[in-house]
Model the fold of this input.
Amino acid sequence: MWMKRWCIVFALAAFGCGAFCSCGKSDAVEETSEGTTEDPVEEKSKITFEFEGEYSGENDEVIIYDYYDTLGGSDGTLRILGIVAAGADDPYVHFPAGRYCISDMSFTITKEIDGVSDYTFKVNYQSGSITEVRETRPSIKYKRVGIHPAAGRQGVCTDHDHYWVSGSGTLSKYDRDWSLVAENTDPFEGYELEVNHIGDIDVYDNELYLGVEYFMDGEGKNIQVAVYDADTLKLKRVFPFRQDTGQLECSGIAVDPDSRTVYMTSWIDDESSEYLYMYDLDTGDYKGKLKLDPAPKWLQGVAYYNGSLYLTSDDGDADENAPDHMYRVDISEDKEIGSVTEEKAFDDVLRQGEIEGVTFDKKRAKLLLLYNRGAKIVAGMPTGFYEGYTEEIHEVFEYDIITGP
Done:
């Protein structure tokens, strides 16, 4: 279906201030005498953004759904550009067609080329200028170097010397060679409230941190932050869970030792999953919630690494062989907003299925990802198998982390 497109063009003077205007035809494309179009010679400082669809003026920020990058003599290939939409009912609202004036708005644009964010621009529409430009972190690449069978389908963590894997109702410990050294097949002993489900897990100071709940048909209740002995795999204590936070499920948990914070995710696809829920590592007290901006869907795992949080999202489609993703969350200084950027599409697993827990081995520069394949998943629960499978297979994929170009 043919769709009319509209654009906003602005020039970046060596990443300084620039004019900002709106128009019904892109300044980056000129019409020739034969009626065809071709790209003119562009200055390296010009970028053309393209919009279409409808935009609600009630939103503080807008989404640009794609753009043409003309930096460095680009051929104008259409590339994806993600922009936060604050308070939008539809996260993919766009500008309307026609001429218009935008004022009193500012937002952050993360320009991505080949999936790697390189610069973030803050644009103030009222003044028509770029108010902030910063270079993002060096690119990180992940090279798959190993696959390890595991005894659980939920989470994974490591302290560099051992690995722990959680099933929905099991805990397992492995040595550096992935040989099983301990197992607990009855991890719910000692709870006052009924629970039946463990999500992604983390380890800190020889203690395992678990998000435990009663989960059935896509809904969770009796959520608890539980701490286990990392050797015996037995329950030690439980944090008091705040019922008034809006958290309706717990799919994963991560420990940030730098800020002494425990983060929890919610898998349910509603407002609950738009936040990470924070508890004090030392006291167990509730600290507040971090708004994800934008918010990925169907969160499964969470991990802390080098100052950022990383989320795994079951946002692919195994039936269509579409991969799930991992997202990086950069936390604001006031601990209220987490800026989300796509980090990796897991198109290198053996077969598309269900992404689960994630962890990092900082000493050895490793990413570890738990991935399930073979089972058909409905409302978060296995409901039969794909052709060629008689059981669900759980594997931990090991990646080397490569920084730099």
